[in-house]
Amino acid sequence: MELYRMTATELSEMIAHKKISSVELTRSVLDRIASRDKEIGAYLTVDEEGALAQAAKVDAKLAAGESLSPLAGIPLGIKDNICTRGIRTTCASKMLGNFVPPYNATVIEKLQAADYVCLGKLNMDEFAMGSSTETSYFQKTRNPHDLERVPGGSSGGSAAAVAAGEAIVTLGSDTGGSIRQPASYCGVVGLKPTYGSVSRYGLVAFASSLDQIGPMARSVSDTALLYSIICGQDPHDVTTARRSYSDFVAGMQPSVKGLKIGIPQEYFGEGVAAEVRESVMNVAREYEKMGAELVEISLPSTSYALAAYYIIASAEASSNLARFDGVKYGFRAAEYKNLEELYENTRSEGFGAEVKRRIMLGTYVLSSGYYDAYYKKAKFTQLMIQDRFRQAFQSCDVILTPTAPDTAFKLGENINDQIKMYMNDILTVTVNIAGLPAISIPCGRDSKNLPIGCQLIGSKFSEQTLFNTAAAYENLVGGFDLDQAIC
Amino acid sequence: MDYKGYEVIIGLEVHAELNTKTKIYCSCKNEFGLEVNSQCCPVCMGMPGTLPTLNGKVVEYAVKMGYALGCTINPVCKQDRKNYFYPDLPKAYQISQYDIPLCEHGHLDILVDGEERRIGITRIHIEEDAGKLIHDDSFSGTLVDFNRCGVPLIEIVSEPDLRSSKEAKVYLDTIRSILIYLGISDGKMQEGSIRCDINVSVHKPGEPFGTRVEMKNVNTFSGAVRAIDYEAARQIEVLEAGGTISQETRRWDDAKGENVLLRSKEDAQDYRYFPEPDLSTIVLEESELAAIKATIPELPNKKLVRYMKDFGLPEEDAHLLVDQQEKAAFFEELTALNKVKPKNASNWILGDISRLTNETGKTIAELGISAPALADLIALTEGNKISSSVAKSVFEEMLKTGKTAGEIVKEKGLEQVSDTDALQAIVDQVVAANQKSIDDYRGGKTNALGFLVGQCMKVSKGKGNPAIMREMLLKILEG
Predict the structure, then answer these.
(1) Residue A278 lies in a domain
(2) Per-residue DSSP letter, B69
(3) Which residue of A94, A277, A303, A343 has the fewest C-beta atoms within 10 A of its own C-beta?
(4) What is the pLDDT of residues A39-63, one digit of tens each?
(5) For residue A117, what is the domain's CATH number?
(6) Would you identify the CATH topology of the domain B420-478?
(7) Which of A82, A96, A375 sits opposite B274 (nearest CB)?
(8) Residue B443 has pLDDT above 90, yes or no
(9) Looking at beta carbons, which residues of chain B come within 8 Å of A238?
(10) Residue of A nearest to B95 (CA)
(11) How far are the Cα atoms of A141, A398, B417 from residue B409, in angstroms, in the given order?
(12) Nearest CA to A167 among A8, A297, A398?
């Protein structure tokens, strides 16, 4: 089998036993990118030279008998909102088209310490605002399962690259579903970790209180492997939790015996495609057969989550994105007569429509006289939702839902219908609002032969349970079939 | 200042830079006067993806000021974002505190014209400073220096309790001196360590308060006095002409001695405050607060009143002593020995000691004279053992040799001569040699007496008792 098709877990073993070199592997993935990415459009920047140099370094270390991390020599793609020192980090925006960070995100430091190989930077919705990767200023990314369709978003490049064999594993970021929904659309695994388990330092902020970086991969154990490396308290991010983490790969026990799986009726209702509903319920039945207990639960406050999400996320975004003003770095309008115009022209020309829409929305909800009616109420709703989840987890260990209401839609299909676009997030945003971990795994295909995703939600810091539960299904179905995407 | 029968209401917002080693949200050095843009990092420059981490010292220092001003400390509080665009503000928001400040409901007692006045303190909160815009003839356009970005500030907001520019000046001086006493700010006005915004309104006594106008860009305390008097006079003139005052913000131009409209109420900025999601809630344990409270020394405003009351010092002298912590401490050490009169101790500190510290740039401790040693010297003058002019030279000798005053006086035979026979001989000698001065005196130029006393002191090598010799001279001159 071609190396680019294999999982990190398999490749890691082969590299460690010198059956293959990291350079061979990296070459294989780079060749794949060269042949495939013209169509897919997952990458905004490919660092071929850097990747090969890094791979050679890993090979040299191994030749010198050093014992390395299981991630050593594995080629990764990084979502383009995660700062990489010396490599352009654009957030898929004209605003940061020329921005080369002089620092690494903490996750990148951790990956470097694990001797990863950086392939380059992946396309996304501009500043992670979107559900289709269509708001990228630079290019469209196509779903490897159907090139007419979107890969989902905002981590569309990260999902498409993994699905198409253009990376072994990737990093995405998830503010309202941006890892899980594209994972679902592209038939791969994506984890949105517990808020505070992965450092946000160096992740260009969209909504600070909701953003989390997370792994995307073709298997559950690869997802666990990458998560084990990136998680942990960071002195540079005071929102990271003060706790230690075990090795999630070593701790993997793919069994659901005695596990209580909650099925919330609200997530299977109107708006969710019948085929999606059926596939996800089928996963539930399989779990039951494997010894899990299914529990009907109710999460009624979910209906408020989308509104709360768009208020909180937009409010924080309006402030976080204010720094892009043309003064210090990034894009600056060519024409301006005074300071006011420098700001106006730079921000009018530098941001795309979706970003501007959210900045305006956020500015409005924070403005004097509206704060209590919107932002304060949304924060209150957030507390309520968190409380409801706490209650729910008293009667179950894991909650099972569809990841997205439907499978991948066509490019351009929803671009002018914001409400429809925002509804894509309805099943995922609640998790961000509640700060919980959730994993999306593939669970079959619909009649259009498009992947369907199933979401497992856990209580805070229950990632191990999510990996175990996900792996039990993965083992049952004999791994996630990506041949149709990778071919 | 004549306010033409109007009462002037003043409230002050003082911004003081704290002298922590590092900045408030990153590990960059908090130092003034270094090369432009040399003390900044991705965090204080607000680069994409960077996050702040709060410097605990800033909270500690602010709490100190809170206790010094009798505030209630909020043991649980948060930080908020104040959003606005300006090139010196790289994140386009300032991290500050909005609805829950670290300290609130305090007061400050100030001494104005011998009377203590209590000024309410609304709140004290922590925030970050912005950078500085640089305009210069050597280049066109504007440059930004980010060194000051993230320098920790406390903002001290007073109630509108001040009634004149004079009171405002005393308030500001007192705040500054407390900051220095607490060791939390260096109080250097010329480096912009303390700046203030001023709210002024005027009204006729018995009538409700007038509309207030805010003035920005006041960078010196004397500037504050000018700004307040200018604004009060402007408002009075408007009212006297039958006009009304509108709520607005004006910019003080100290060079021109006038202010100009910056923005009216309608254009007031909406800062869209909201809780800073990148930082955690500040939680202060009771034990932590108690430990901070225990470090608060006696404050200069309280010392001032005590020196006047307990030691009978004039206000001016008490002010000068209290002004520098080391002087006050030295004074207290001297008086605690119970050997000398407080006024004499004060005179020595404000006289020779201050002169020397000013000349040499040394601290009192570095001068190398202890309080007991100085007390011995002062005691010799108080006991008429040596004259004050001899005392000065003994003092110099003490500094040079480290010997005690008694030793020096004994070794050099400097003890004051009060023996009338010996003194009479000196006086006679001087009278005989200065006929012209005697004629001058008798001709009405009475200051010739001083000259003659001086001559006598010279002949006695400073040891003669000047009071006795003066009497002897007078007897001859008047006789």
Answers:
(1) no
(2) T
(3) A303
(4) 999 999 999 999 999 999 999 999 9
(5) 3.90.1300.10
(6) Arc Repressor Mutant, subunit A (1.10.10)
(7) A375
(8) no
(9) 51, 53-54, 278-280
(10) A319
(11) 97, 93, 12
(12) A8
